[in-house]
User: Fold this.
Amino acid sequence: MAGSSTSSLRVVASRRKEKPACALPVSPAYERWTVAERRAHPALAPARALSSRLATVAAAAPSAPLSFAAVRVLGPCSTADELAEALEPVAEALARTLTAFDFAGMVDARTVGVILQGRGGVSASRFERRLREELRESTRGLRPWRYEVSLATGVGSQADVLALAACDALPDAG
Assistant:
């Protein structure tokens, strides 16, 4: 598994350029930011960065605990601006819940993936619960979207499988 590709985690949303006014909360600089910078500027990594980080974690620590959380936006997003607005609370909630070892990025246009490096089942479950609470608080009755969260736990050598399992457990956005 460590050498396998995470090509299923590619995203079109992080490459959109036709609407410069749209402010998807995706930043190529995310990888270099400290936790404090991520909290000050809530954002998500592009899919390529998420995929690359997942492969690196799998290769560097194949037997270490690893969890993968996925968050999907459910509800109407017919324009890029609506999608950006729907993803904003996710980026903000993650900025408040991630640690220095965690990494969040786009999986597809409506799905955000979170690599929880070194986190086993108990710690990952706490993270999932806190993330759900953060999303519920930040969107309470104010937005037309729902957010579903899924979690898969294992070890580094299972990185690709964990990511796919977490994403597959989410309902379709359609």
In short: The two ends are 31 Å apart (CA to CA). The first strand starts at residue 65 and ends at 74. The chain has five helices and four strands. Strands lie at 65-74, 102-108, 111-117, 146-155.
